[in-house]
Every structure is written in C-alpha cells, then in structure tokens.
Design goal:
about 210 residues, alpha/beta, 6-stranded mixed β-sheet, about 35% helix, globular
Amino acid sequence: MNLDEIVDCMLLTNQEIQQTQTDHRMKLVDFWEIKSGDRVLEVGCGQGDTTAVLANAVGSNGFVQGIDIAPRSYGAPFTLGDATDHLKKSPLGNRMDFKLATNILQGDITFSDLEFDVAVLSHASWYFSSKEELTRMLILLSKWANRVCYAEWDPQITDVKQSSHLLAVLTQASYEAFKKETQSNCSETQKLDQMPTREIWLVFFMRSSVRGTE
C-alpha cells in the first residue's frame, strides 16, 4: 500500500496531520528494515498509527502484535478501542492483533524466547515512570525478539517552530509531576534530561548485545 492507502485504514481526525505522521512512521519502518513475513511485537501501540505501517511492511505472511497498557476507553476524540477496532476491519486487519489494558512489566502477558523477529518501541518512552522501567522493558523485548527497534522524539529543538510544542510538553510534565496518579505520558520533567539526543527524532537499533543484560 502507498501512504494514502495506509492512512485510509485509520480512524482519522485530521487527514493532513495523519499523512505527515504516517510518512514519518514509514521512514522509520524502512530504516528498521522490517521485511515481508516478519513477526513483530509492538509495545505502546496506542491507536495503531505505527501498527498499520508495520502491518503493511510485513505483508500477508507476517503478523504484528500490538500491546498497550492503556484501556480501550483511553484517548480522545477517538478511544484506543475505537481506533484499533477500525484498523482490524481494514484491509490490513488480518495481519494484526491488539492487547489493550495489558501491563507487560506486571506479568499480564509473556512470550517465548525469540518468538518474534522484531520488537518495536516507537514514541512511547514517556509512558514509563522511570529510566529503570524502560530498561526492564528493553531487556524483556531483547529476549522475546531477535532485535529491538526504538524511536523517540528529540527534546532538543532544531527549529523555532518546534518551541511551542516543547514548551507545552514541559508545562504539562511540570503540572503532572505533582499528581499522585496520572494518565499523562510525560509526568516527569527529568525524563527529558534522561533522553539521548541527536536529531529531531532519535532512532537506533538495539541488537542481540542487549540480550541477557541484568
């Protein structure tokens, strides 16, 4: 499928924004060298923006298992349940499955060693409460998949147009940090300082060298 056809599979609020986001994710998947027939585990799948692109890449002989800690009712204006149900009914739907309200670190689900060709954690780092939690997740993923592919936005802006978004994130993080319970994906301002930075988005491979790390 081309860009427009993949976007047509999604539950949309803004066609132009979704095309931009999907184009970015297609570049990620191409960089990660996801190939036809791959079995992919995606953690932090959300509404399935990256899931759809992965499903297109793995083809009819591949499969993408999306997992997210959030419940079906989470999200606006469409919930995760609305968005993932819509994707499942699309032409890509038979290549994917979603397990929502599933906490991997609490043992809600587990997989056999090397059950997947690739594990993906894309733009989901801020949902972890600490660097230690993120490390635990990466160690698990490295056991379940031959390789782990990771992507996150860089908090160091390169264009003045990006400053308003960064300031909004910093403001939200500062506010959420005072809450005992929060559903925010950026509740700790220190996460911004802990993130590695290189480009407007950071992408790197974590290969088998991670496997077995304690």
